[in-house]
Amino acid sequence: MDSLKLIFQYIKRHKFRYAAGIVTLFVVDFANIYIPRITGDITDGLADHSFAWADVTRCLLILAALGLTLAIGRFLWRYFLFGTARIVEMELRNDMFAHLETMDVEYYNENKTGDLMTRFTSDLNAIRMAIGPGAICVFDAVVMTVMVLVQMMTYVNVRLTLITLIPMVLICVGMVFYGKVMHGRYRARQEAISDLTDFVQEGFSGIRVVKAFVRERAQLYRFAKENANTRGKTLRAVRLQSVVIPLLDVAIGCSTLSALIYGGYLTLVGDITLGRFVAFNQYINQLVWPMLACGEAINVFSQGLASAKRIQHVFDAEPEVRDSEAVREDPQSAAPLKGEITLSHLTFRHKDGTEPTLKDISLEVPAGTTLAIIGRTGNGKSTLVNLLLRLYNTEPGMIRLDGRDINSIPLHTLRENIACVPQDNFLFSATLKSNIAFGAEGEDMDAIVQATTDACIHESITTFPEGYDTVVGERGVTLSGGQKQRSAIARALMKDSPILILDDALSAVDTDTEEQLLRNLKRNRQGKTTILIAHRISTVQNADVILVLEDGEAREIGTHNQLMERGGIYRDMFEKQQLEAAIGEQKAAFHRHADRYAPWKGGETV
Fold first, then answer.
1. pLDDT tens, 470-489?
2. Which of 159, 198, 245, 396 could form a disulfide with 112 if both were Cys (CB 3.0 to 4.6 A apart)?
3. What is the DSSP letter of 406?
Protein backbone atom coordinates (compact mmCIF):
# COMPACT_ATOMS: atom_id res chain seq x y z
CA MET A 1 0.00 0.00 0.00
CA ASP A 2 1.22 3.50 -0.87
CA SER A 3 0.53 4.83 2.63
CA LEU A 4 2.69 2.10 4.20
CA LYS A 5 5.46 2.76 1.67
CA LEU A 6 5.38 6.40 2.68
CA ILE A 7 5.88 5.58 6.36
CA PHE A 8 8.61 3.04 5.65
CA GLN A 9 10.51 5.65 3.66
CA TYR A 10 10.89 7.70 6.83
CA ILE A 11 11.67 4.69 9.00
CA LYS A 12 14.46 3.66 6.59
CA ARG A 13 16.18 7.00 7.19
CA HIS A 14 16.65 5.96 10.83
CA LYS A 15 16.89 2.21 10.31
CA PHE A 16 19.93 1.82 12.58
CA ARG A 17 18.18 3.52 15.50
CA TYR A 18 15.07 1.49 14.84
CA ALA A 19 17.07 -1.75 14.56
CA ALA A 20 18.88 -0.93 17.82
CA GLY A 21 15.50 -0.55 19.52
CA ILE A 22 14.24 -3.88 18.16
CA VAL A 23 17.43 -5.69 19.22
CA THR A 24 17.21 -4.16 22.70
CA LEU A 25 13.56 -5.16 22.94
CA PHE A 26 14.50 -8.73 21.98
CA VAL A 27 17.18 -8.81 24.70
CA VAL A 28 14.64 -7.59 27.26
CA ASP A 29 12.08 -10.21 26.25
CA PHE A 30 14.75 -12.94 26.20
CA ALA A 31 15.92 -12.00 29.70
CA ASN A 32 12.33 -11.84 30.91
CA ILE A 33 11.48 -15.46 30.01
CA TYR A 34 14.26 -16.86 32.23
CA ILE A 35 12.91 -15.33 35.43
CA PRO A 36 10.10 -17.94 35.89
CA ARG A 37 12.59 -20.74 35.13
CA ILE A 38 14.99 -19.58 37.85
CA THR A 39 12.08 -19.15 40.25
CA GLY A 40 10.99 -22.73 39.49
CA ASP A 41 14.50 -24.08 40.10
CA ILE A 42 14.67 -22.28 43.46
CA THR A 43 11.24 -23.68 44.42
CA ASP A 44 12.22 -27.25 43.51
CA GLY A 45 15.58 -26.95 45.23
CA LEU A 46 14.02 -25.72 48.44
CA ALA A 47 11.18 -28.27 48.25
CA ASP A 48 13.44 -31.33 47.95
CA HIS A 49 16.24 -29.76 50.07
CA SER A 50 18.75 -30.12 47.23
CA PHE A 51 19.73 -26.42 47.29
CA ALA A 52 22.40 -25.08 49.60
CA TRP A 53 22.58 -21.43 50.55
CA ALA A 54 25.27 -20.91 47.89
CA ASP A 55 22.86 -22.18 45.23
CA VAL A 56 20.15 -19.80 46.44
CA THR A 57 22.63 -16.91 46.44
CA ARG A 58 23.73 -17.77 42.89
CA CYS A 59 20.12 -17.78 41.66
CA LEU A 60 19.39 -14.48 43.42
CA LEU A 61 22.43 -12.88 41.79
CA ILE A 62 21.24 -14.11 38.40
CA LEU A 63 17.79 -12.64 39.10
CA ALA A 64 19.40 -9.33 40.09
CA ALA A 65 21.45 -9.31 36.88
CA LEU A 66 18.34 -10.04 34.84
CA GLY A 67 16.49 -7.25 36.65
CA LEU A 68 19.29 -4.80 35.86
CA THR A 69 19.26 -5.92 32.23
CA LEU A 70 15.51 -5.36 32.07
CA ALA A 71 15.80 -1.87 33.58
CA ILE A 72 18.55 -0.73 31.21
CA GLY A 73 16.99 -2.48 28.22
CA ARG A 74 13.56 -0.92 28.77
CA PHE A 75 15.13 2.53 28.91
CA LEU A 76 17.08 1.87 25.70
CA TRP A 77 14.21 0.52 23.64
CA ARG A 78 12.08 3.46 24.72
CA TYR A 79 14.89 5.81 23.73
CA PHE A 80 15.41 4.24 20.31
CA LEU A 81 11.86 3.30 19.30
CA PHE A 82 9.89 6.16 20.88
CA GLY A 83 12.62 8.63 19.93
CA THR A 84 12.64 7.47 16.31
CA ALA A 85 8.84 7.68 16.17
CA ARG A 86 9.03 11.29 17.38
CA ILE A 87 11.67 12.10 14.75
CA VAL A 88 9.58 10.53 11.98
CA GLU A 89 6.55 12.51 13.14
CA MET A 90 8.57 15.75 13.03
CA GLU A 91 9.98 15.01 9.57
CA LEU A 92 6.55 14.08 8.22
CA ARG A 93 5.11 17.32 9.57
CA ASN A 94 7.94 19.37 8.05
CA ASP A 95 7.65 17.67 4.67
CA MET A 96 3.87 17.94 4.61
CA PHE A 97 4.04 21.66 5.38
CA ALA A 98 6.67 22.16 2.67
CA HIS A 99 4.52 20.20 0.20
CA LEU A 100 1.40 22.21 1.01
CA GLU A 101 3.32 25.44 0.40
CA THR A 102 3.77 24.33 -3.23
CA MET A 103 0.05 23.76 -3.79
CA ASP A 104 -2.11 26.09 -5.85
CA VAL A 105 -4.72 28.42 -4.46
CA GLU A 106 -7.36 26.11 -5.96
CA TYR A 107 -6.24 23.36 -3.59
CA TYR A 108 -7.05 25.54 -0.58
CA ASN A 109 -10.38 26.45 -2.10
CA GLU A 110 -11.25 22.76 -2.26
CA ASN A 111 -9.78 21.62 1.09
CA LYS A 112 -10.86 23.01 4.44
CA THR A 113 -8.31 24.53 6.79
CA GLY A 114 -9.61 22.56 9.76
CA ASP A 115 -9.21 19.28 7.89
CA LEU A 116 -5.58 20.11 7.03
CA MET A 117 -4.91 21.12 10.65
CA THR A 118 -6.23 17.76 11.87
CA ARG A 119 -3.78 15.96 9.60
CA PHE A 120 -0.95 17.92 11.17
CA THR A 121 -2.06 17.02 14.71
CA SER A 122 -4.13 13.93 15.44
CA ASP A 123 -3.31 12.06 12.22
CA LEU A 124 0.44 12.45 12.67
CA ASN A 125 0.05 11.52 16.34
CA ALA A 126 -1.74 8.30 15.29
CA ILE A 127 1.13 7.46 12.92
CA ARG A 128 3.66 8.08 15.70
CA MET A 129 1.75 5.74 17.99
CA ALA A 130 1.69 3.07 15.27
CA ILE A 131 5.44 3.10 14.55
CA GLY A 132 6.41 3.54 18.21
CA PRO A 133 4.19 1.83 20.82
CA GLY A 134 2.42 -0.10 18.04
CA ALA A 135 5.66 -1.68 16.84
CA ILE A 136 6.49 -2.73 20.40
CA CYS A 137 3.05 -4.30 20.78
CA VAL A 138 3.48 -6.27 17.55
CA PHE A 139 6.94 -7.46 18.53
CA ASP A 140 5.81 -8.59 21.96
CA ALA A 141 2.61 -10.12 20.60
CA VAL A 142 4.63 -12.28 18.21
CA VAL A 143 8.19 -12.76 19.46
CA MET A 144 7.54 -12.85 23.19
CA THR A 145 4.55 -15.15 22.71
CA VAL A 146 6.69 -17.61 20.74
CA MET A 147 9.53 -17.51 23.27
CA VAL A 148 7.18 -18.01 26.22
CA LEU A 149 5.38 -20.88 24.50
CA VAL A 150 8.69 -22.60 23.73
CA GLN A 151 9.67 -22.34 27.40
CA MET A 152 6.27 -23.62 28.53
CA MET A 153 6.55 -26.65 26.23
CA THR A 154 10.20 -27.52 26.79
CA TYR A 155 10.56 -26.65 30.45
CA VAL A 156 7.09 -27.60 31.78
CA ASN A 157 4.65 -29.74 29.73
CA VAL A 158 3.41 -29.79 26.11
CA ARG A 159 -0.15 -30.97 26.88
CA LEU A 160 -0.64 -28.37 29.58
CA THR A 161 0.59 -25.67 27.18
CA LEU A 162 -1.78 -26.73 24.39
CA ILE A 163 -4.81 -26.77 26.69
CA THR A 164 -4.12 -23.29 27.98
CA LEU A 165 -3.61 -22.03 24.40
CA ILE A 166 -7.15 -22.84 23.20
CA PRO A 167 -8.73 -19.55 24.45
CA MET A 168 -5.79 -17.57 23.09
CA VAL A 169 -6.19 -19.02 19.58
CA LEU A 170 -9.79 -17.83 19.62
CA ILE A 171 -8.50 -14.36 20.57
CA CYS A 172 -6.16 -14.23 17.56
CA VAL A 173 -8.97 -15.17 15.15
CA GLY A 174 -11.29 -12.56 16.66
CA MET A 175 -8.61 -9.87 16.45
CA VAL A 176 -8.45 -10.13 12.66
CA PHE A 177 -12.13 -9.14 12.36
CA TYR A 178 -11.73 -6.55 15.11
CA GLY A 179 -8.95 -4.80 13.16
CA LYS A 180 -11.01 -4.52 9.96
CA VAL A 181 -14.02 -3.01 11.74
CA MET A 182 -11.86 -0.71 13.88
CA HIS A 183 -10.09 0.70 10.82
CA GLY A 184 -13.34 1.95 9.27
CA ARG A 185 -14.66 3.37 12.52
CA TYR A 186 -11.46 5.23 13.27
CA ARG A 187 -11.35 6.76 9.80
CA ALA A 188 -14.91 8.04 10.26
CA ARG A 189 -13.86 9.47 13.62
CA GLN A 190 -10.92 11.34 12.07
CA GLU A 191 -13.17 12.87 9.42
CA ALA A 192 -15.60 14.01 12.12
CA ILE A 193 -12.73 15.60 14.08
CA SER A 194 -11.63 17.38 10.89
CA ASP A 195 -15.11 18.83 10.38
CA LEU A 196 -15.25 19.96 14.01
CA THR A 197 -11.80 21.56 13.86
CA ASP A 198 -12.70 23.39 10.67
CA PHE A 199 -15.92 24.71 12.18
CA VAL A 200 -14.14 25.97 15.30
CA GLN A 201 -11.36 27.62 13.28
CA GLU A 202 -13.85 29.33 10.98
CA GLY A 203 -16.08 30.37 13.87
CA PHE A 204 -13.28 32.08 15.77
CA SER A 205 -11.89 33.74 12.63
CA GLY A 206 -15.32 35.21 11.92
CA ILE A 207 -16.26 36.04 15.51
CA ARG A 208 -16.80 39.72 14.66
CA VAL A 209 -19.38 38.81 12.03
CA VAL A 210 -21.04 36.40 14.46
CA LYS A 211 -21.37 39.11 17.10
CA ALA A 212 -22.44 41.78 14.61
CA PHE A 213 -25.34 39.61 13.44
CA VAL A 214 -26.11 38.27 16.94
CA ARG A 215 -25.66 34.66 15.82
CA GLU A 216 -23.96 33.33 18.94
CA ARG A 217 -26.83 30.99 19.78
CA ALA A 218 -27.04 29.67 16.22
CA GLN A 219 -23.29 29.07 16.15
CA LEU A 220 -23.48 27.31 19.51
CA TYR A 221 -26.24 25.07 18.16
CA ARG A 222 -24.18 24.21 15.08
CA PHE A 223 -21.12 23.56 17.23
CA ALA A 224 -23.12 21.28 19.52
CA LYS A 225 -24.32 19.38 16.46
CA GLU A 226 -20.76 18.95 15.12
CA ASN A 227 -19.54 18.04 18.59
CA ALA A 228 -22.27 15.43 18.99
CA ASN A 229 -21.35 13.96 15.61
CA THR A 230 -17.70 13.69 16.69
CA ARG A 231 -18.75 12.14 19.99
CA GLY A 232 -20.93 9.61 18.20
CA LYS A 233 -18.19 8.56 15.79
CA THR A 234 -15.69 8.34 18.65
CA LEU A 235 -18.06 6.26 20.78
CA ARG A 236 -18.56 3.79 17.91
CA ALA A 237 -14.84 3.06 18.06
CA VAL A 238 -14.65 3.14 21.87
CA ARG A 239 -17.64 0.82 22.30
CA LEU A 240 -16.02 -1.80 20.12
CA GLN A 241 -12.80 -1.45 22.09
CA SER A 242 -14.65 -1.63 25.41
CA VAL A 243 -16.21 -4.95 24.34
CA VAL A 244 -13.03 -6.52 23.00
CA ILE A 245 -10.70 -5.69 25.91
CA PRO A 246 -12.90 -7.39 28.57
CA LEU A 247 -13.20 -10.41 26.27
CA LEU A 248 -9.41 -10.54 26.24
CA ASP A 249 -9.43 -10.58 30.04
CA VAL A 250 -11.99 -13.40 29.99
CA ALA A 251 -9.86 -15.46 27.58
CA ILE A 252 -6.77 -14.86 29.69
CA GLY A 253 -8.71 -15.84 32.81
CA CYS A 254 -9.82 -19.07 31.12
CA SER A 255 -6.20 -19.89 30.28
CA THR A 256 -5.14 -19.19 33.86
CA LEU A 257 -7.97 -21.36 35.21
CA SER A 258 -7.02 -24.20 32.85
CA ALA A 259 -3.42 -23.94 34.00
CA LEU A 260 -4.42 -24.09 37.68
CA ILE A 261 -6.77 -27.06 37.27
CA TYR A 262 -4.80 -29.24 34.88
CA GLY A 263 -1.40 -28.06 36.09
CA GLY A 264 -2.39 -28.76 39.68
CA TYR A 265 -3.50 -32.24 38.68
CA LEU A 266 -0.17 -32.94 36.90
CA THR A 267 1.71 -31.71 39.96
CA LEU A 268 -0.27 -34.00 42.27
CA VAL A 269 0.30 -37.07 40.10
CA GLY A 270 3.98 -36.22 39.78
CA ASP A 271 4.15 -35.48 36.04
CA ILE A 272 5.60 -32.02 36.78
CA THR A 273 7.34 -30.66 39.84
CA LEU A 274 5.99 -27.95 42.12
CA GLY A 275 8.65 -25.54 40.87
CA ARG A 276 7.67 -26.09 37.25
CA PHE A 277 4.02 -25.60 38.16
CA VAL A 278 4.93 -22.25 39.76
CA ALA A 279 7.02 -21.33 36.69
CA PHE A 280 4.17 -22.26 34.35
CA ASN A 281 1.78 -19.91 36.12
CA GLN A 282 4.35 -17.14 35.83
CA TYR A 283 4.60 -17.88 32.10
CA ILE A 284 0.80 -17.64 31.87
CA ASN A 285 1.04 -14.20 33.49
CA GLN A 286 3.77 -13.27 31.00
CA LEU A 287 1.40 -14.18 28.16
CA VAL A 288 -1.14 -11.68 29.46
CA TRP A 289 0.79 -8.70 28.05
CA PRO A 290 1.35 -10.20 24.57
CA MET A 291 -2.37 -11.00 24.32
CA LEU A 292 -3.29 -7.48 25.41
CA ALA A 293 -0.57 -6.17 23.12
CA CYS A 294 -2.18 -8.04 20.25
CA GLY A 295 -5.44 -6.13 20.76
CA GLU A 296 -3.62 -2.87 21.33
CA ALA A 297 -1.48 -3.38 18.22
CA ILE A 298 -4.52 -3.96 16.03
CA ASN A 299 -6.21 -0.88 17.52
CA VAL A 300 -3.15 1.35 17.11
CA PHE A 301 -2.32 0.09 13.63
CA SER A 302 -5.93 0.53 12.49
CA GLN A 303 -5.77 4.14 13.58
CA GLY A 304 -2.30 4.61 12.13
CA LEU A 305 -3.24 3.09 8.78
CA ALA A 306 -6.34 5.25 8.48
CA SER A 307 -4.29 8.35 9.29
CA ALA A 308 -1.48 7.29 6.93
CA LYS A 309 -4.01 7.18 4.08
CA ARG A 310 -5.12 10.72 4.92
CA ILE A 311 -1.50 11.91 5.00
CA GLN A 312 -0.78 10.08 1.73
CA HIS A 313 -3.72 11.89 0.17
CA VAL A 314 -1.97 15.19 0.92
CA PHE A 315 1.33 14.07 -0.61
CA ASP A 316 -0.45 12.64 -3.66
CA ALA A 317 -1.87 16.06 -4.51
CA GLU A 318 0.22 17.75 -7.20
CA PRO A 319 0.23 21.48 -7.97
CA GLU A 320 -1.03 22.41 -11.42
CA VAL A 321 1.11 25.55 -11.41
CA ARG A 322 4.75 24.47 -11.31
CA ASP A 323 8.02 24.82 -13.18
CA SER A 324 8.60 22.47 -16.08
CA GLU A 325 11.70 20.30 -16.21
CA ALA A 326 13.14 22.50 -18.98
CA VAL A 327 12.71 25.63 -16.87
CA ARG A 328 14.38 24.05 -13.85
CA GLU A 329 17.37 22.98 -15.91
CA ASP A 330 17.81 26.30 -17.76
CA PRO A 331 20.11 28.65 -15.76
CA GLN A 332 19.16 31.61 -18.01
CA SER A 333 15.51 31.37 -16.98
CA ALA A 334 16.29 32.77 -13.52
CA ALA A 335 17.48 36.15 -14.86
CA PRO A 336 15.87 39.09 -12.97
CA LEU A 337 12.99 41.02 -14.55
CA LYS A 338 12.94 44.66 -15.65
CA GLY A 339 9.17 45.14 -15.63
CA GLU A 340 7.98 45.06 -19.25
CA ILE A 341 4.58 43.33 -19.54
CA THR A 342 2.90 42.15 -22.73
CA LEU A 343 -0.61 40.70 -22.87
CA SER A 344 -1.43 38.98 -26.15
CA HIS A 345 -5.06 37.89 -26.64
CA LEU A 346 -5.21 36.90 -22.97
CA THR A 347 -8.22 34.70 -22.31
CA PHE A 348 -8.80 32.82 -19.07
CA ARG A 349 -11.54 30.63 -17.66
CA HIS A 350 -11.59 29.47 -14.03
CA LYS A 351 -11.55 25.76 -13.30
CA ASP A 352 -15.29 25.45 -12.67
CA GLY A 353 -16.34 28.44 -14.78
CA THR A 354 -18.62 28.20 -17.78
CA GLU A 355 -17.68 31.59 -19.27
CA PRO A 356 -14.20 33.14 -19.57
CA THR A 357 -13.34 35.60 -16.81
CA LEU A 358 -10.96 37.47 -19.13
CA LYS A 359 -11.54 37.68 -22.89
CA ASP A 360 -8.99 38.47 -25.59
CA ILE A 361 -7.03 41.20 -23.78
CA SER A 362 -3.99 42.62 -25.58
CA LEU A 363 -1.80 45.32 -24.05
CA GLU A 364 1.81 46.56 -24.10
CA VAL A 365 3.18 47.90 -20.79
CA PRO A 366 6.79 49.18 -21.10
CA ALA A 367 9.06 48.93 -18.06
CA GLY A 368 8.65 51.93 -15.74
CA THR A 369 4.99 52.45 -16.70
CA THR A 370 2.19 53.05 -14.21
CA LEU A 371 -0.74 50.95 -15.41
CA ALA A 372 -4.16 51.47 -13.86
CA ILE A 373 -6.92 48.87 -14.15
CA ILE A 374 -10.43 49.98 -13.38
CA GLY A 375 -13.83 48.41 -13.72
CA ARG A 376 -16.88 47.34 -11.84
CA THR A 377 -16.76 44.51 -9.28
CA GLY A 378 -16.47 41.02 -10.76
CA ASN A 379 -15.00 42.06 -14.10
CA GLY A 380 -11.69 40.20 -13.74
CA LYS A 381 -9.33 42.81 -12.28
CA SER A 382 -8.02 40.57 -9.47
CA THR A 383 -7.91 37.59 -11.82
CA LEU A 384 -5.53 39.51 -14.06
CA VAL A 385 -3.28 40.17 -11.05
CA ASN A 386 -3.35 36.49 -10.09
CA LEU A 387 -2.33 35.56 -13.63
CA LEU A 388 0.64 37.96 -13.48
CA LEU A 389 1.70 36.24 -10.23
CA ARG A 390 1.03 32.93 -11.99
CA LEU A 391 -1.31 31.68 -9.33
CA TYR A 392 -3.14 30.13 -12.29
CA ASN A 393 -1.78 28.74 -15.55
CA THR A 394 -2.25 30.52 -18.88
CA GLU A 395 -1.73 29.37 -22.43
CA PRO A 396 1.81 29.89 -23.78
CA GLY A 397 2.44 33.33 -25.26
CA MET A 398 -0.55 35.07 -23.66
CA ILE A 399 1.57 36.82 -20.98
CA ARG A 400 5.16 37.88 -21.57
CA LEU A 401 7.49 39.62 -19.14
CA ASP A 402 10.52 41.29 -20.70
CA GLY A 403 9.65 39.37 -23.85
CA ARG A 404 9.78 36.00 -22.07
CA ASP A 405 6.79 33.71 -21.81
CA ILE A 406 5.63 33.76 -18.19
CA ASN A 407 5.57 29.94 -18.22
CA SER A 408 9.31 29.89 -18.95
CA ILE A 409 10.18 31.98 -15.88
CA PRO A 410 10.77 30.01 -12.64
CA LEU A 411 8.04 30.66 -10.09
CA HIS A 412 10.60 31.74 -7.48
CA THR A 413 12.15 34.28 -9.87
CA LEU A 414 8.77 35.54 -11.05
CA ARG A 415 7.32 36.15 -7.60
CA GLU A 416 10.60 37.46 -6.22
CA ASN A 417 10.44 40.25 -8.82
CA ILE A 418 6.83 41.19 -8.08
CA ALA A 419 5.58 42.88 -4.91
CA CYS A 420 1.85 42.60 -4.40
CA VAL A 421 -0.66 44.15 -2.01
CA PRO A 422 -3.73 41.86 -2.24
CA GLN A 423 -7.28 42.88 -1.44
CA ASP A 424 -7.45 41.04 1.89
CA ASN A 425 -4.31 42.77 3.32
CA PHE A 426 -3.32 39.70 5.29
CA LEU A 427 -1.09 40.40 8.30
CA PHE A 428 0.49 37.72 10.47
CA SER A 429 0.01 37.55 14.22
CA ALA A 430 3.43 39.08 14.90
CA THR A 431 5.00 42.51 15.43
CA LEU A 432 4.43 45.29 12.94
CA LYS A 433 8.17 45.36 12.34
CA SER A 434 8.31 41.70 11.31
CA ASN A 435 5.16 42.05 9.18
CA ILE A 436 6.57 44.99 7.24
CA ALA A 437 9.96 43.29 6.77
CA PHE A 438 8.32 39.98 5.80
CA GLY A 439 9.51 40.05 2.19
CA ALA A 440 13.00 41.41 2.94
CA GLU A 441 16.14 39.57 3.99
CA GLY A 442 16.39 41.26 7.40
CA GLU A 443 14.72 43.77 9.69
CA ASP A 444 16.69 46.91 8.79
CA MET A 445 14.95 49.62 10.83
CA ASP A 446 16.07 52.44 8.55
CA ALA A 447 14.54 50.67 5.55
CA ILE A 448 11.40 49.82 7.54
CA VAL A 449 10.91 53.43 8.64
CA GLN A 450 11.46 54.64 5.07
CA ALA A 451 8.86 52.18 3.75
CA THR A 452 6.29 53.09 6.41
CA THR A 453 6.91 56.80 5.81
CA ASP A 454 6.27 56.35 2.09
CA ALA A 455 3.15 54.33 2.94
CA CYS A 456 1.93 57.11 5.31
CA ILE A 457 1.74 54.77 8.32
CA HIS A 458 4.89 55.73 10.24
CA GLU A 459 3.20 58.43 12.35
CA SER A 460 0.36 56.10 13.30
CA ILE A 461 2.81 53.38 14.37
CA THR A 462 4.78 55.78 16.59
CA THR A 463 1.58 56.53 18.53
CA PHE A 464 1.20 52.86 19.52
CA PRO A 465 2.48 52.04 23.04
CA GLU A 466 4.97 49.48 21.71
CA GLY A 467 5.65 51.27 18.41
CA TYR A 468 7.06 48.93 15.76
CA ASP A 469 7.13 46.11 18.34
CA THR A 470 3.33 46.20 18.63
CA VAL A 471 1.95 42.70 18.08
CA VAL A 472 -1.04 42.79 15.76
CA GLY A 473 -3.85 40.31 16.35
CA GLU A 474 -4.67 37.37 14.14
CA ARG A 475 -4.93 38.59 10.52
CA GLY A 476 -4.20 42.10 11.85
CA VAL A 477 -7.62 42.52 13.48
CA THR A 478 -6.29 45.02 16.05
CA LEU A 479 -5.61 47.55 13.28
CA SER A 480 -8.14 49.62 11.38
CA GLY A 481 -8.80 48.89 7.73
CA GLY A 482 -6.71 51.84 6.60
CA GLN A 483 -3.83 50.92 8.90
CA LYS A 484 -3.85 47.35 7.59
CA GLN A 485 -3.79 48.57 4.00
CA ARG A 486 -0.94 51.00 4.59
CA SER A 487 1.04 48.36 6.54
CA ALA A 488 0.62 45.99 3.61
CA ILE A 489 1.75 48.72 1.19
CA ALA A 490 4.83 49.36 3.37
CA ARG A 491 5.61 45.62 3.24
CA ALA A 492 5.44 45.72 -0.57
CA LEU A 493 7.58 48.87 -0.80
CA MET A 494 10.14 47.25 1.50
CA LYS A 495 10.57 44.51 -1.11
CA ASP A 496 11.46 47.13 -3.76
CA SER A 497 10.64 44.87 -6.72
CA PRO A 498 10.68 45.81 -10.44
CA ILE A 499 6.92 45.27 -10.55
CA LEU A 500 4.50 46.50 -7.86
CA ILE A 501 0.82 45.54 -7.85
CA LEU A 502 -1.70 47.34 -5.65
CA ASP A 503 -4.99 45.43 -5.83
CA ASP A 504 -7.60 47.89 -4.54
CA ALA A 505 -5.09 48.75 -1.82
CA LEU A 506 -6.25 52.34 -1.25
CA SER A 507 -9.96 51.75 -0.74
CA ALA A 508 -9.85 52.21 3.05
CA VAL A 509 -7.73 55.39 3.20
CA ASP A 510 -9.05 58.94 3.06
CA THR A 511 -8.59 61.21 0.04
CA ASP A 512 -5.73 63.27 1.51
CA THR A 513 -3.75 60.16 2.51
CA GLU A 514 -4.42 58.64 -0.90
CA GLU A 515 -3.00 61.71 -2.65
CA GLN A 516 0.11 61.65 -0.47
CA LEU A 517 0.59 57.93 -1.06
CA LEU A 518 0.30 58.32 -4.83
CA ARG A 519 2.83 61.18 -4.78
CA ASN A 520 5.25 59.00 -2.80
CA LEU A 521 4.74 56.11 -5.21
CA LYS A 522 5.40 58.32 -8.24
CA ARG A 523 8.62 59.58 -6.65
CA ASN A 524 9.92 56.21 -5.43
CA ARG A 525 8.84 54.05 -8.37
CA GLN A 526 10.73 55.96 -11.07
CA GLY A 527 11.77 53.50 -13.76
CA LYS A 528 9.77 50.65 -12.21
CA THR A 529 6.45 49.21 -13.28
CA THR A 530 3.45 49.88 -11.04
CA ILE A 531 -0.02 48.40 -11.49
CA LEU A 532 -2.90 50.11 -9.70
CA ILE A 533 -6.27 48.39 -9.43
CA ALA A 534 -9.01 50.58 -8.06
CA HIS A 535 -12.65 51.56 -8.21
CA ARG A 536 -12.10 55.29 -7.64
CA ILE A 537 -11.14 57.45 -10.62
CA SER A 538 -9.13 59.69 -8.29
CA THR A 539 -6.76 56.81 -7.65
CA VAL A 540 -5.95 56.09 -11.28
CA GLN A 541 -6.39 59.35 -13.20
CA ASN A 542 -2.66 60.21 -13.18
CA ALA A 543 -1.53 56.77 -14.43
CA ASP A 544 0.39 56.49 -17.70
CA VAL A 545 -2.07 53.95 -19.08
CA ILE A 546 -5.60 53.15 -17.91
CA LEU A 547 -7.25 49.84 -18.79
CA VAL A 548 -11.04 49.72 -18.40
CA LEU A 549 -12.40 46.18 -17.94
CA GLU A 550 -16.04 45.41 -18.63
CA ASP A 551 -17.36 41.83 -18.62
CA GLY A 552 -13.77 40.59 -18.74
CA GLU A 553 -12.97 42.56 -21.91
CA ALA A 554 -10.60 45.48 -22.43
CA ARG A 555 -13.27 47.99 -23.48
CA GLU A 556 -11.08 51.11 -23.24
CA ILE A 557 -7.34 51.78 -23.05
CA GLY A 558 -5.65 55.16 -22.80
CA THR A 559 -4.75 58.10 -20.55
CA HIS A 560 -7.26 59.94 -18.40
CA ASN A 561 -7.68 62.76 -20.94
CA GLN A 562 -7.99 60.36 -23.87
CA LEU A 563 -10.67 58.32 -22.15
CA MET A 564 -12.58 61.41 -21.07
CA GLU A 565 -12.61 62.69 -24.64
CA ARG A 566 -13.85 59.31 -25.87
CA GLY A 567 -16.99 59.66 -23.74
CA GLY A 568 -17.37 55.95 -23.01
CA ILE A 569 -17.47 53.76 -19.88
CA TYR A 570 -14.61 55.60 -18.16
CA ARG A 571 -16.22 59.03 -18.53
CA ASP A 572 -19.54 57.63 -17.35
CA MET A 573 -17.86 56.23 -14.21
CA PHE A 574 -16.03 59.53 -13.67
CA GLU A 575 -19.19 61.61 -13.87
CA LYS A 576 -21.10 59.26 -11.56
CA GLN A 577 -18.33 59.40 -8.97
CA GLN A 578 -18.13 63.19 -9.28
CA LEU A 579 -21.89 63.39 -8.73
CA GLU A 580 -21.69 61.07 -5.71
CA ALA A 581 -18.87 63.17 -4.27
CA ALA A 582 -20.87 66.39 -4.78
CA ILE A 583 -23.93 64.89 -3.10
CA GLY A 584 -21.72 63.71 -0.25
CA GLU A 585 -20.31 67.20 0.19
CA GLN A 586 -23.80 68.70 0.25
CA LYS A 587 -24.93 66.23 2.89
CA ALA A 588 -21.84 66.93 4.99
CA ALA A 589 -22.39 70.69 4.70
CA PHE A 590 -26.05 70.27 5.65
CA HIS A 591 -25.14 68.28 8.80
CA ARG A 592 -22.47 70.82 9.77
CA HIS A 593 -25.03 73.62 9.67
CA ALA A 594 -28.14 71.66 10.60
CA ASP A 595 -28.91 73.96 13.54
CA ARG A 596 -29.52 76.84 11.15
CA TYR A 597 -32.29 74.94 9.38
CA ALA A 598 -34.00 73.55 12.48
CA PRO A 599 -37.63 74.87 12.83
CA TRP A 600 -37.25 75.09 16.58
CA LYS A 601 -34.54 75.00 19.17
CA GLY A 602 -34.86 74.50 22.87
CA GLY A 603 -38.63 74.56 22.61
CA GLU A 604 -38.65 78.02 20.91
CA THR A 605 -39.24 78.83 17.30
CA VAL A 606 -36.12 80.20 15.63
1. 888 666 677 887 888 888 88
2. 198
3. G
